[in-house]
Amino acid sequence: xxxxxxxxxxxxxxxxxxxxxxxxxxxxxxxxxxxxxxxxxxxxxxxxxxxxxxxxxxxxxxxxxxxxxxxxxxxxxxxxxxxxxxxxxxxxxxxxxxxxxxxxxxxxxxxxxxxxxxxxxxxxxxxxxxxxxxxxxxxxxxxxxxxxxxxxxxxxxxxxxxxxxxxxxxxxxxxxxxxxxxxxxxxxxxxxxxxxxxxxxxxxxxxxxxxxxxxxxxxxxxxxxxxxxxxxxxxxxxxxxxxxxxxxxxxxxxxxxxxxxxxx
Length: 264
Hints:
- By secondary structure, the protein is mainly beta.
- It has helices spanning about 55-60, 75-85, 145, and strands at about 20-30, 65-70, 100-105, 120-130, 150-155, 170-175, 210, 220, 225.
- The chain has a domain at about 20-40 and about 50-185: ASAP complex, SAP18 subunit (Ubiquitin-like (UB roll)), CATH 3.10.20.
- Strands 1, 2, 3, 4, 5, 6 and 9 form a 7-stranded mixed sheet that branches. Strands 7-8 form a two-stranded antiparallel ribbon.
- The longest helix has 11 residues, at about 75-85.
């Protein structure tokens, strides 16, 4: 039986191992905060398909669903992400665009706050620069297809290496290059406000949170966060194991799908 938190380096045969569902949320020019995933679950969840359907419109309106595996790299996520983004979200050519990924997940050790909201925290996953850090030197006539194969930063980092737990959300912030063509710097850590918890909160059960170093690389640490309710029936719960046969309740090789179930 597959673990809910597959170890890094584990060999996965994608032809015989069913993928799991990953929800990726994105935003332009600023990060998603953990508290934005904070909603109170109503007492009657009969008609609620999953927790993500309760999220604010401006959050769930920028979401894509991907079926993937623990050895999925940030380069793979970036390629899929770019292939389905609406026009004008990133410049054309995309060279010089920075994508910053992080995990957002409920803190199952936190006490439920007033209003039925539990605590959400985040953990840096990695940063990818399309075309590399010297993207501003590229030919202005380059096409997207010529640069998306060249990623710099944490492109080879896998979900398993980040101690991803099936059911975690992935948030992606999109930073186009500056007007002079230079790659945008790494953003500062997200501020904690509203329902946000203190910096250096308790560790999660699949590892610690963390932060980025000066060059954009990841270093271990502890996450801060906001509050959010535990997911109702229908989502993976941390600590559960997938059914026999793979990471999803489907059988077969899997693939990639958007919100409507249409393959990417």
